[in-house]
Amino acid sequence: MSFKFIILLVVLLLAPPIFAGNKILYYEPKIVTLSGIVKFETFPGPPNYDNIYEGDKAEAYPFLLLDHPIDVFLDQNFGDDDIDVPEKNVKIIQVVVTKNTSWTKLKSKKHICITGTLYHCNTIHHKSRVLISEQHTEYCSNTNKS
Questions:
Q1: Residue 138: is its pLDDT beyond 80?
Q2: Side-chain half-sphere of 55: how many Cα atoms within 13 Å?
Q3: Does a structural domain hold residue 57?
Q4: CA-to-CA distance for 106 and 125, rounded, in angstroms?
Q5: Which distant-in-sequence residues (6+ apart) come within 8 Å of 41 by Cβ?
């Protein structure tokens, strides 16, 4: 075998992982599972949603710092949607908690997996481009991929 052939073979074998893009996921009603670490951030709330130091209530929101970035698209099988616009290279997702039992796991600062549906931000309470409406949260190893 020639040296050039061996180099070409090595490049071709390594190319898929090198050029692989973000995982593609779809907005609701598709159910997805994402993994990462939860981080809470505080933002100004009512009455003006402007400045905590000037009297606005402090509101803390949970976010999932994803293990791997994702791209999110609207599934064309579920119609056209003006709100759920495509988003690429999403690394942080706001978690919308639907079960009170999930709060303990979210506050643990451990690696977790969240299953739910994705939707795009559309109110003043939404602090990331994409949110997940949490249906199930569990501890998981950080070898899982988003």
A1: yes
A2: 2
A3: yes
A4: 19
A5: 60, 61, 63, 127
